[in-house]
Specification:
The protein is α/β, with parallel strands linked by helices. Helices cover 36% and strands 14% of the residues. The chain is built from 17 helices and 14 strands. A hairpin with a 5-residue loop joins β4 and β5 (73-77). It starts with a strand and ends in a 5-residue tail after the last helix.
């Protein structure tokens, strides 16, 4: 594993880009929390509102769990830890009138609210966009659902796996039918949730910028299905151009050849040959110069037409040496090439260390707690790692005192009434 960089290396007292922005996060699981974590990394004060006793669903999504310094399991799941750093946790029962009053009061003091409840379900609590924007016209209110606030599926629950299937991603992911292991596959991480979180951050930041001009907040209506369709990129455009739905190519590319994984004598590696010049350089590097002169393969359009033939020739050739040997030869001629790492190998890459992508964020249960850091690098307002993912409700007193000015006696009464935890 690469060297772990101490949190202090990114703090230095510099204000984050979003310092002063208050975010009230009513979301749970991944898409919303992923977006709010990005905002928190950029300096926003993110207050995560969780259910008393249970919290975010992902608090129960273990094992694995974070370990203590002496290697014992805690009850803090790795899933929850991955998307909730830099936030403060407040436990509130929003099913109670007093709990709803607390959330409304917090929203009145916030710049942004993020929620991923079923479309329209917060209206009965007076926590919908119309209700809260009347209290705070400057509020940017971001709703994240599977299918959006409108349309025939608006009331249906939406999960990443379902959307990967419905949205076409699985139809182009996996090996072709008829090939061993063929069939549609989901991506190995909840990529639709992650992308929706990132698109939501863009929408929120755009709404904040617009607010500077208009003085008003607005409603951001984000849907996993919308995001999944938008993120298919060239594949949807290929269909719109031809009327033919793209198929699955395994690790191959629909429009570029050779752009695939190949098995060497020991393990797999990847070649991503983007143009004819790179193909000629590749052929020279692997001592098959005649391939680039062959009219079946000289141009990319020819290689796409003769995909099976060129793939068969290269596959047989690459069995003659190790993946490391091929990668070294091919990289010397600047053709994109690389090994297929597992996650341990990926984290051990020297480039990961050089970019400071592994960080220490001391936790109350483990002072040596480690995370993958943010990929955002800003020269004047760098990302800060102020705190790990919070324990359930650990900041209830501080936040309600700071935001709402509640007294110790009021807090004690709310707790005894089961309104906060």
């Amino acid at each position: 594993m690469s060297e772990i960089h101490d949190v202090g290396s990114k703090e230095g007292g510099v204000m984050g880009a979003l310092t002063g922005v208050r975010v009230l996060d009513l979301s749970r699981v991944l898409a919303g929390p992923w977006g709010s974590q990005v905002l928190a990394d950029l300096g926003a004060d993110v207050v995560k509102v969780e259910r008393i006793g249970r919290g975010d669903d992902t608090r129960a999504w273990g094992p694995p769990y974070m370990k203590t310094a002496d290697g014992k399991n805690t009850q803090e799941t790795s899933y929850y830890q991955s998307s909730n750093r830099n936030k403060r946790s407040v436990a509130v029962d929003i099913a109670t009138e007093k709990g709803q009053e607390i959330v409304r009061a917090l929203a009145a003091e916030s710049d942004v609210l993020i929620e991923n409840f079923k479309a329209g379900s917060l209206k009965k609590y007076g926590l919908d966009y119309e209700s809260l924007s009347s209290l705070n016209p400057r509020l940017v209110y971001c709703s994240i659902t599977g299918f959006g606030q409108t349309g025939p599926r608006a009331q249906e629950p939406g999960y990443d796996f379902i959307i990967q299937g419905m949205g076409g991603l699985m139809s182009i992911t996996g090996e072709r039918d008829g090939v061993q292991g063929g069939g549609p596959q989901k991506v190995g991480v909840a990529v639709t949730d992650v992308m929706t979180g990132l698109y939501s951050v863009i929408a929120i930041q755009a709404a904040l910028l617009a607010r500077e001009k208009t003085g008003r907040g607005q409603h951001c209506d984000m849907a996993l299905l919308d995001v999944q369709l938008a993120a298919l990129g060239n594949q949807t455009q290929n269909y719109l151009s031809t009327g033919v739905s793209p198929g699955r190519y395994g690790n191959a590319h629909a429009n570029i050849v050779p752009y695939n994984s190949f098995h060497a004598s020991d393990k797999d590696f990847i070649i991503a040959c983007g143009n004819d010049s790179q193909f000629a350089a590749l052929c020279n590097a692997i001592e098959l110069p005649e391939l680039s002169a062959d009219p079946r393969f000289s141009k990319n359009e020819d290689r796409v037409r003769n995909r099976e033939a060129i793939t068969r020739i290269l596959s047989e050739h690459f069995k003659r040496d190790t993946a490391d040997a091929w990668v070294k030869r091919i990289s010397k001629v600047n053709v994109p090439v690389g090994l297929i790492n597992n996650i341990a190998e990926a984290l051990a890459e020297p480039q990961v260390d050089a970019r400071g992508m592994l960080v220490n964020i001391p936790h109350a249960m483990n002072p040596d707690f480690k995370m993958v850091g943010s990929p955002i690098n800003l020269s004047d307002t760098p990302v800060e790692y102020k705190r790990p993912a919070p324990l359930l409700g650990q900041d209830t007193n501080d936040v309600l005192t700071e935001y709402l000015g509640l007294s110790p006696e009021q807090l004690l009464q709310f707790k005894s009434d089961g309104v906060v935890g």
